[in-house]
Amino acid sequence: MARHDLATVLPPYLRDLQQEVEAHARSFGLDFFPTLFEVVSYDQMNELAAYGGFPVRYPHWRFGMEFEQLSKSHEYGLSKIYEMVINNNPSVAYLLEGNSIVDQKLVMAHVFAHVDFFKNNYCFKATNQGVDPRTGEPVRKWIDAMANHGATLRRWVDRVGIEAVEEFIDTCLSLENLIDPQKPFHPPRAREKKSEFELLDGDETLEPAGRLRVDRDYMKDFINPREFLESQQRGLDAERAKAKRVPERPDRDVLGFLLEHAPLERWERDVLWAVRTEAYYFWPQMQTKIMNEGWASYWHSRLMTEKICDDGEIIEYAERNAGVMETASGRLNPYKLGVELYRHIEERWDRGQFGPAWEDCDDLEARRSWNLNTGLGRKKIFQVRALYNDVTFIDEFLTPDFVAEQKMYAFGYSKRNDRFEIESRTFADVKEKLLFSITNAGQPFVRVTDANLGNRGELMLAHEHQGIDLRVDWAREVLQALVRVWRRPVEIHTVLENKPATLRFDGREHVQRLRA
Amino acid sequence: MPALTAASSAGAATMVRWVSLRIDQDQARFKGIVRGKIRQNLRRYVSQGELTGKRGKDLVSIPLPHIDIPRFRYSDRQQGGVGQGPGEPGSPIGPGDDEDGEGEGRGKAGKEGAEHTIEVDVTLDELAGILGEELALPDIEPRGKNKLLDQKDRYVGIRRVGPNSLRHFKRTYKQALLRQISTGTYDARHPIVVPTRDDMRYRSWKTQEEPVANAVIVYMMDVSGSMGDEQKEIVRIESFWIDAWLRKQYKGLETRFIIHDAVAREVTRDVFFRTRESGGTMISSAYKLAAKLIEDEFSPAEWNIYLFHFSDGDNWSVDDTTMCIDLLKTTLLPASNVFCYGQVESPYGSGQFIKDLRERLGADARLVTSEIRDRDAIIGSIKDFLGKGR
Fold first, then answer.
1. Among A46, A409, B60, B170, whose CB has the most other CB atoms within 10 angstroms?
2. What value of ipTM does the predicted structure carry?
3. pTM across the whole model
4. Which of A331, A463, A473 sits opposite B83 (nearest CB)?
């Protein structure tokens, strides 16, 4: 810790608290980056929240809008931000000035669990900027990265003007969700140039396509009959045609594709690059909302009730905790769902309620009293927090018992009654709806499929339709943004009302047509 | 005197302190966008009158559609989601406001709400400014009686002595920097700039005398039986905007309200907008009262006087109309900057009065008449009235 003991404005009594909470957290096995706490006033807190937790971001009006809304809802007493923590190494967390001691303890306990999650969950490995060779710890200097984006963009603002830059940021933000979350885990791509040359060299000496080796001349026509050779040739031609296509195969990283291939000015490239980098940074948090908040809530409740609170504080803590866990007007609360699911898992693995014997047991009474005293619960939840994301977490650990116990339901829009209604309480329906709403963080899958559509340099995207249409008015505006970047007509293939449809924008007008 | 240094990123703690300026810039640009949106939708706001009810002291809350950045996303209706709580299949679920209150929270399990709206606070002054720009209303030139003077201190200059509370930080810094560079003591690698006594600069003020233009608006409304609720609503909305614009032009604006059917009386603002009487109509009664009001309280030599009269144009008799025109000719028109007559169309009235006015007094530039057919015509009528800059 000492090495990272940077200057903070934390007053001594809070520093003592931090040391106490930190020691308790470590004693439970939480493993976190060094964490810096800072005390901020409520308007600073709102400002930081508007900037997504970072003290410096690029200039953009939407931060101002966020700030205005946060300030207003704070002033009206509708909401109050208690806690904020940044995925950074060292992590930075903010405490609200003037909060009670119990609140500060709660926030600290919550924060250490978040930081443990940032450090250990595999999704967040995508935010590593390398590894420190001395300590082996991941490098995550995202405060610096964000500040650098800010500095770069501000310099461009000085040259080309705030209107131009801000308008282009708007454009890029419209495309912000068009990234490929798997990409950070791909091995670095081999240099393409080299293979192109090899192909050229090879072509001259290459045997006619796909011919099998013939040792005896008279066997030639038997080993390589004409039909075989022709089919081989066709396959090869198709392969080559594919290789010539850009992109080679449909690419979900539309932002990356544009960065590489769109005719951008230098300043535009810098803007797009910053927006894309930040989109990749924030993605893991969207992928693990339930798990991350659940994990933090699980540990703040254990730390507070078992270690930290004294008798006089427990009521205040319970009240605060209840506020965080409430599920108002039937909405799903990720804090509540997450914490309950971790507890469910812990209990199951403590009692040995897993494996084939458990799965095959149909006797209700036996299941209810099932207890093998395996005591693996703690170990299991630590493993879960490292290896799962929201989708796999729900997919693997949501059980019918849990759905019934938590009174979960699936709802949908009823055309007949013109309102949202509860549709079902069956396990399969609830699980399917829930999984759908968190798959790809609730965003549609869109890929760039062709950059030279009709040999006219037009861009084609494809939406992988999974039962729900795109919102058309917004899709049109996104197409406008794409045309702004690509500078040629752009179209997207999707499905509207069960019919294959194409939305197209050529820079002047929108066209919507059905495809055969 | 502490050393002044250029802001350095000495650590996160200080960073938090100086970014408060940064969000101000972002917020200012957001407000610029909001102003643009208000301008786009101004006609709707003006004609719906939804603002007039939402008035605080100086601020007006305007509901705006949430300004979102469009993305590829699912349409709401088909989606649905998962919730938690009691209820049978088929029972409706609460609309659930969808504000996402949790810190960095985006993309969450749950339903996306319908259209968001946000409320933006705008000062009435600003709103009037937008209205003025949109309608290309000229600034009003007060009549040349600038007898009333007001004293005001303005900080316009710089001097070398003064109290520390008025120290001009930037100028002082520049001066010190200038001195250090010119004497060669400035070191770019250690850019510490220490001001001396001679470098200090302070703000200084001048006392200016400003002419004050006083103005009074007298609103007169016909509340006879033929004026229905809709007609009154139109008058209400229109006078709200006229009020807002004139208030922007004059600091000490007085407003007076007169209602009349067969007799006229002065009332409060509240009564003006709420009453519904039912009687005959004698417009002259209101004009007489207005003339008396001007004589007693608002000398035309010192006041800019604006008279607005709204009616459905159905006067009691030809004689009364003649009397009105005489009154206008002899007293009201000479005393006022402008006399505006707005005729609201009602299903009952003949609407003769406006024709009489135009026929008999149409040549007089101080008289402005306007017909207000429905709510959509309000904005045009405001332009008729105030478009001359008198």
1. A409
2. 0.80
3. 0.72
4. A331
